[in-house]
Amino acid sequence: MPALYIGHGAPMLLEDALWTSQLRSIAADIPRPKAILMVSAHWESEPITLSATGAHTPLVYDFSGFDRKFYEMTYNSPDATALASLVASLMPDTEPIHSSNRGLDHGAWVPLRVMYPDADIPVLQMSMPTEDPVKLMELGRRLAPLREQGVLVVGSGFMTHGLRYLREWSPDAQAPGWSSDFDMWAAEALARGDVDTLSKFKELAPGMPYAHPTVEHFTPLFVALGAGTTADAAPKTLIDGYFMGLSKRSILVA
């Protein structure tokens, strides 16, 4: 089973024909997972915490200003208790996993509604405990054995996320220079498998800090890279291009 880093988008992307077709293609082209572990930009919490595990896990509607229908959507996934136990078994004794009653936030359920619309695969969300790329890659390495168990590990964010700096709020808006520059820099580093350069994105990447005034939408990438068979192997780009000028580049890590 591969690991993924995907651009999850706002709920309105559920109505974007191109983006949804691209996500459906990803799901169709990879093995069907037995379970899914999501690490979303929208849940930063230390120590590492897992979402509710019961069937029909509730959703977190962590957005505002959208059509009412988005607040009425559900994603009734099966019980994920077994996956939670498996994840906990991979953590060292010095870093025990905490549990919670938190539901799945939109970084998890929006793409999953597209990729696996039947909601028939157990889903668990893990909090992102740090923004340190090195520590997140180590977390990914701990999670790597899940792949042998048929678990899809997904880092969910957005390759550029400078929402406050957008001037044109249109799906087909031209990408600002800071967005395209950062995207191309990241794409080139990924193509080289250059995780050391990627981990220094705050200092080295063009377009900073506009591309990521806060970094939580980029850092899930490092969990996915760490979960790869070889962290410095070049991943495969599955989606590129822009939405409202922001890069939705998504990758597969073998």
From TrEMBL:
Molecular function (Gene Ontology), one example: ferrous iron binding
Membrane-spanning intervals of the chain: none
Cofactor(s), names only, from the UniProt record: Zn(2+)
CDD domains: 45_DOPA_Dioxygenase
Swiss-Prot/TrEMBL keywords: Metal-binding, Oxidoreductase, Zinc
InterPro entries listed in its UniProt record: Extradiol_dOase_DODA, Xdiol_dOase_suB
Domain Extradiol ring-cleavage dioxygenase class III enzyme subunit B intervals: 24-230
Family: Belongs to the DODA-type extradiol aromatic ring-opening dioxygenase family.
Family matches, as PANTHER family: 4,5-DOPA DIOXYGENASE EXTRADIOL-LIKE PROTEIN
Name of the protein: Unannotated protein
Species, as recorded: freshwater metagenome
Higher taxonomy: unclassified sequences, metagenomes, ecological metagenomes
